[in-house]
Amino acid sequence: MTAPTLLLVGHDPCFARMLSYELGRAGYCVVADGELPRSIDCAVVNLDTAVPPEGIPYVGCTRVPERVEGNPCVLLRPFLVSALISALEQVRQAAPADSTPLTLSCTDSDRCAHFGHARLPLMPAEYALFKALLAANGRPVSRDTLTAALPSGKQPASNLLEVTVCSLRKNLEKAFGLRPIRTVRGIGWRLDME
């Protein structure tokens, strides 16, 4: 099981370092605003300086007592780290199961995979392979079909397909924590999002 990933939004650098340290000790993977290496499980938002990100469950913190009244997901600063961790667990448990699909950007010039709020730029061969796997809707795709989908130009090396599959698998796992590409013996590969 991977550590839950938290996004810190709108915090001053000193406070963000303290939160990163304490939440890291509690078993969370913490990323700062602007870094989205993988899908985000939850956010900790300074409501005095920032707006909560859309579509991500969050715990807010503020120095304005009126914002806290009646909202268990907003903490009044200063607060105990244990209170923040408790609020994060409540928010994560109340959040619906992640049904965010793994998608591909529409434009060939962008060439990115998206999962939740994270995006992964892809190399041309990875993009073509991923596009072909997504188009199959979970059905196995043959080696010949995938080889034909690779960018044209010079004759592909005999192992270009295997190298591209390996690279795409590694990048999807690193960026999103997912391993969706499955080998289908004697046929090729398929994309498994279940």
Number of helices: 6
Mean of residue pLDDT values: 80
The count of DSSP E runs of length 2 or more, i.e. the number of strands, is: 11
Rounded to an integer in angstroms, the radius of gyration calculated over CA atoms is: 21 Å
**Main sheet strand line-up:** 2-1-3-4-5
The H/E string reads: EHEEEHEHEEEHEHHEE
Overall number of structural domains: 2
Secondary structural class? alpha/beta
**Overall shape:** elongated
In terms of topology, how is this protein built?
Layout (H helix, E strand, L loop, with lengths): L4 E5 L3 H13 L3 E4 L9 E5 L11 E5 L2 H4 L5 E3 L4 H14 L7 E3 L7 E4 L2 E4 L2 H12 L5 E2 H7 L10 H17 L4 E4 L3 E4 L3
Parallel strand pairs: 1-2, 1-3, 3-4, 4-5
Antiparallel strand pairs: 6-7, 7-8, 9-11, 10-11
Helix pairs in contact: 4-5, 4-6
Polypeptide structure, described:
With 194 residues, the protein is of the alpha/beta class. The protein contains six helices and eleven strands. The strands form three sheets. The chain has a five-stranded parallel β-sheet with strand order 2-1-3-4-5. It has a three-stranded antiparallel β-sheet with strand order 6-7-8, covered by helices on one side. Helix 1 links the parallel strand 1 (5-9) and strand 2 (29-32). The longest helix is centred in the last third of the chain and has 17 residues, at 160-176.
In short:
With 194 residues, the protein is an alpha/beta fold.
Top keywords for this entry?
194 residues; alpha/beta; Rossmann fold; Arc Repressor Mutant, subunit A; 2 domains; five-stranded parallel beta sheet; three-stranded antiparallel beta sheet; 11 strands; elongated
